[in-house]
Amino acid sequence: MKIIITGGAGFIGSHVVRRFVNTYPQYQIINLDKLTYAGNLANLKDIEDRPNYTFVKGDITDGPFIETLFEREQPDAVIHLAAESHVDRSISNPLDFVLTNVVGTVNLLNAARSHWKGEGSKRFYHVSTDEVYGALGETGMFTEETKYDPHSPYSASKAGSDHFVRAYHDTYGLNTVISNCSNNYGSHHFPEKLIPLAIHNIKNNKPVPVYGKGENIRDWLWVEDHARAIDIIFHQAKAGDTYNIGGHNEWKNIDLINLLCSIMDRKLGRAEGESAKLITFVKDRAGHDLRYAIDSTKLQQELGWVPSLQFEEGLEKTVDWYLTNEDWLENVTSGAYQDYYKKQYSYR
Ligand code: NAD
Ligand code: TDX
């Protein structure tokens, strides 16, 4: 089987590519990635020489290029993760999100439709987010039946792409699958997102920006548990099906940051409470969703997936990874990152 995995140089994509290359030596894995600011081939150094792995640099918004790639490679499946993924950037530049997340997804769907000609065995798997469901109040959880209600340009673009994927199943009979996952954390996470940004800032004794009062709640999942869920769903789901993925692991942002500060105190040999002094409450994110919580009962009961790692243990492993991979962090935080950071955090 030949699988195109899009966005394989990014955070989650690199974990998915690594898992598939290592677990299925009989599969050919093609990593298709534009290498935007978020894409980094250093994420895949350990597997880049494997005979069942190829990297192709390319842009999913370029329809003719995608057609040519399908013609040349004749893939048997697509696992689609390439996206603009950061909510704050979507607030500044919504059109980039429409182009990559909606137009890019439709380009891939068109190529799959025209090349696969209704062959039911060929699967198009779209990796999506819980943010399409909107925001929860203090109670309740998102299930696969929850109505879509996106609030940010990012989640609106992901909702749009999910709708197109379902439309290609219903209209053209494409063998599609969608999974909607909660917030991931782990190694190789770009330091614009809360956890790696906080680790980077604490390490460098810089303010740790917490939006609003830090009361928003996110449901965190170890990225390797997400990659394992994708593997299981890719191989076992019925055509047209949807699964929610999440770890039943809700944290208020401020509680998470306090936990992270105490882990960092211990790892850096600082006095308890030292890192927490860096916490700085800043202007809230526009349209900031209050709470996400995923009900993954369907995935657990039908396909037997369960999360493997406790959050405290996973967070500690994540901190260890960032502290032992300082070069990775220094490389991705030089240059354009500095411009982004100044712009993003200056007005708050
Ligand atoms: P990321 O930003 O770390 O990586 C995105 C990758 O896509 C990068 O390698 C980038 O170079 C590539 N890319 C971007 N635009 C492209 C284009 N036009 N053509 C080709 N490649 C392009 O993102 P991530 O956090 O790893 O998220 C991966 C996927 O999972 C996304 O679809 C995201 O919506 C979804 N998701 C993420 C989370 C999370 O917590 N990070 C949770 C649920 C779902
Ligand atoms: O500096 C910050 N301070 C802060 O308080 C940042 C960057 C974030 N936050 C808050 C906003 C959120 O409530 O922390 C929470 C997590 O923020 P992000 O790491 O930006 O993630 P989120 O907006 O929840 O979206 C993530 O999870 C779902 C991913 O970026 C998405 O791609 C995914 O779909």
UniProtKB/TrEMBL annotation:
Known cofactor(s): NAD(+)
The entry's keywords: Lyase, NAD
EC number: 4.2.1.46
Gene3D superfamilies: NAD(P)-binding Rossmann-like Domain, UDP-galactose 4-epimerase, domain 1
Broadest EC class assigned to this enzyme: lyase
Domain NAD(P)-binding: from-to ranges: 4-318
Database matches in InterPro entries: dTDP_Gluc_deHydtase, NAD(P)-bd_dom, NAD(P)-bd_dom_sf
Chemical reaction(s) catalysed: dTDP-alpha-D-glucose = dTDP-4-dehydro-6-deoxy-alpha-D-glucose + H2O
Keyword Chloroplast: no
Family of the protein in this entry: Belongs to the NAD(P)-dependent epimerase/dehydratase family. dTDP-glucose dehydratase subfamily.
PANTHER family membership: DTDP-D-GLUCOSE 4,6-DEHYDRATASE-RELATED (PTHR43000)
Name by which UniProt lists this protein: dTDP-glucose 4,6-dehydratase
Organism of provenance: Olivibacter ginsenosidimutans
